[in-house]
Amino acid sequence: MNEEVKIPMSMKKSILSIIGCLIFIGFSIWFIIDPQQFLNFRRQNETTIFIVGIIGLITFSIFLISITYKLFQKNTGIHFKKDGFFDNSNATSAGFVKWEDVLKIDEAKVANQKFVLVMVKNPDDYVKRQKSLVKRKLMASNMSFYESPIMISANHLQINYDKLLELMKSQFEKYNLITT
């Protein structure tokens, strides 16, 4: 009854995300180089278009680096065990989460994107243990909006969102009974 469940990263989904990032980076560079070309009756300010280009370039470059890094890691996206699960699914992956820390598995939606929200007893501990300042800031932002730093996406996993949510809930119920 102690079988471990692993959900691998999806090479196909990651490559499609990389292509999307490259397209948005291209448009962002175009906004920076030639903002005048994007002027119309709604956007009459070249500076605004230039700033949007800078923000887009920075944001999608960070996404590109993060996705590319995850693509070449040998780690499993999510690995469920008796004592907890290891989350390596996205840029704000929590790492190892103990079942005894988990209060509830819920859902969150950000700009039409669904996430599995893992509510934990000690959310600040999961933020503080991150080595990367960027990751800490992103997780703290998640916590301020959703009361948890742990949000898991199926975007780069070999599973769809509904199955991921169902699996997370069933693993929590299964192992929470053992740990309580």
Major sheet characteristics: 4 strands, antiparallel
- State the separation between the terminal residues, measured CA to CA: 17 Å
Number of strands: 7
**Percent range for β-strand residues:** 15-25%
Mean pLDDT: 87
Structural domains: how many: 2
Which series of helices and strands comes N to C? EHHEEEEEHHEH
Strand order of the largest sheet: 1-2-3-4
What radius of gyration results from the CA coordinates? 19 Å
Count of helical segments? 5
What is the percent of helical residues?
A: 40-55%
Specify the overall morphology: elongated
User: Class by helix and strand content?
Assistant: alpha+beta
Question: What would your notes on this structure say?
Answer:
This protein has five helices and seven strands, in the order E-H-H-E-E-E-E-E-H-H-E-H. The protein has 180 residues and is of the alpha+beta class. 49% of the residues lie in helices and 19% in strands. The chain folds into two domains: 5-72, no CATH class; 78-179, no CATH class.
Give a quick set of tags describing it.
180 residues; alpha+beta; 2 domains; 4-stranded antiparallel β-sheet; 5 helices; elongated; membrane; STM3941-like; transmembrane helix
Question: What would you say about this model in short?
Answer:
The chain crosses the membrane at residues 15-33, 48-72. With 180 residues, the chain is of the alpha+beta class. The protein has helices at 11-33, 46-72, 123-128, 133-146, 161-179; strands at 5-7, 78-80, 84-87, 95-98, 102-110, 113-120, 150-152.
